[in-house]
Design a protein that fits this description.
Layout lengths: L1 H9 L6 H11 L12 H8 L13 H27 L3 H9 L4 H29 L3 H6 L9 H11 L3 H28 L4
Helix pairs in contact: 1-4, 4-6, 5-6, 6-9, 8-9
Length: 196
């Protein structure tokens, strides 16, 4: 049963960001009240007697809906890596902690988390980098409208819509400068663990 659930959670990793954007565009799709709702979310809302919503015009919430797509895509990656790290924790250390009187929360905090900390750092930094350079989802869902602009879509618009190549290049440099500290930290952690 574990393999089935893991496979279901991991499947979105096979979808491109643009493909995920198209899929979720149908889920969040909006039609005015009285029309048949083709969007899953609005279909559920109207089924229970609510009014359909244009989800991406709602400030703050529209960003949360975009974040949900990235979480859906990246959960499988994090699950596979962290799951394998958890299976690598020696059961003898956990049993020794229980014999010494540690409760489950203490075992998690004092044994498991320190043991898998390098894996947590790797997963976290990888997802931070993906988040910093996210473009596809925002571009396919909102095109950066309604307060959902991200740095990569801003760079794209400056270079290819407004033809301000200097501004677009400057934004790209800012993006690189934002990613460098995360990469440096990740590589520093690798070298501490003798990964190189």
């Amino acid at each position: 049963m574990e393999k089935v659930f893991k496979s279901i959670i991991f499947m979105p990793m096979a979808i491109s960001f643009v493909g995920a954007g198209v899929i979720w565009r149908f889920i969040y799709s909006y039609k005015p009240a009285g029309e048949d709702q083709i969007g899953l979310l609005n279909a559920i809302v109207t089924f229970f007697g609510g009014e359909p919503q244009a989800w991406f015009t709602m400030p703050v919430w529209n960003n949360i809906f975009l974040i949900a797509i990235l979480v859906w895509l990246q959960t499988g990656y994090a699950m596979v890596i962290i799951s394998s790290a958890l299976k690598g924790v020696p059961s003898t250390i956990i049993e020794a902690g229980r014999i010494d009187g540690a409760g489950e929360f203490r075992i998690i905090r004092s044994i498991i988390i320190p043991f898998i900390a390098p894996t947590l750092i790797t997963v976290s930094t990888t997802i931070i980098i993906i988040t910093l350079k996210i473009f596809d989802i925002v571009f396919t869902m909102t095109n950066g409208n309604y307060g959902t602009e991200v740095i990569a879509s801003m760079q794209y618009k400056q270079m290819f819509r407004f033809y301000h190549y200097g501004r677009g290049s400057a934004i790209a440099i800012v993006l690189v400068l934002a990613v460098i500290p995360v990469m440096w930290y990740n590589l520093h952690q690798f070298s501490k663990r003798e990964g190189f």
